[in-house]
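Field reference: sequence -> structure
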Amino acid sequence: MQSGISVSPNLQSDFHTFLSNPSLFALLITITSERLEPLTAIPYPTSPSPSTLHDSLSTLTPHLHPTQALYILLRPPQQETLEPPTTTTLTAITYIPDHAPVRQKTLFASTRLTLLRELGADKFPAHVFATEPQDLSADGWARWQQHEGGEKPLTREEEVLGEVRRKEGEEGRGMQERRAHVQQAGAGMKVVLGEGVGEEMRGLGLGEGGGRVVMLKIDPDESVVLAGVEETDLAGLASTISDTEPRYSFFRYTHAMDGTEENSSVVFIYTCPPASKVKERMVYASFKKMVMDAASQAGGFEVAKKLEASSPLEITPEMIDEEFHPKQEQKQAFARPKRPGKR
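Structure field:
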């Protein structure tokens, strides 16, 4: 979901200051009046010296509130990175607490990629998602590192490249299309389409099956995989889409144009039920446009309409019909009032 929010001149200025000042540990960012704005810059603690990452994390705690989402750009201490002294390596943290308002959660999740892209995605090789202050404590960070295998986090490009190489090794030359299709998705990010997705998309592009819906989901390693394929009409569409997990659905819709000519179009539907986990909301919102572009490219079709809803039940036949056939407002002729005294 694209939020339309952009980086403000104030944030651009404060970010350049942050980059050029190695004594600063973190830059906090919020969304105000439809702009990404800086909150404050946090310096490294003066004791102990030199500071370690775990020592410095405690300076974030006073700024982490249970109902307020936040972006944090974090500069690991130089001695804890393997980068040359002239290289700035930052970690981007998206903090969205469970008790933040729903609209705020959605807004911060859908704006994360905009923030990284406008500040320079290459500066952020590591991305961390947090939902409570304990996630950003020394203990929480240690658990995260242990979960990641104790290694430096891979960039999204490195993860995708590793997955592609693994699958190519399994299948041999000439078979990579059968297992995964990698599509460029702007700002250096990529999407992996899992087994069978490309084939189903090509079938949808050719118009096979009439009223067919192809549903996609994101698996734990952030590959896009098939969640289901169903033959359905408009009336049965909502019941085929999960009402407990987010889904990307592509529906082949056949309808009459101008009352006579029949037309067939592909509709992209993004649903994210309220029961979805916070991380699911963040990931699905961030990947929405990339998945739509990658899938439509794999299928060789253009998406005619894009719809979004919290619940699949909101996707009604009337809603889709009106997207293609907007109701024309009937203008009534002006009725001249009768002159007083006349019958």
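Note: The two ends are 62 Å apart (CA to CA).
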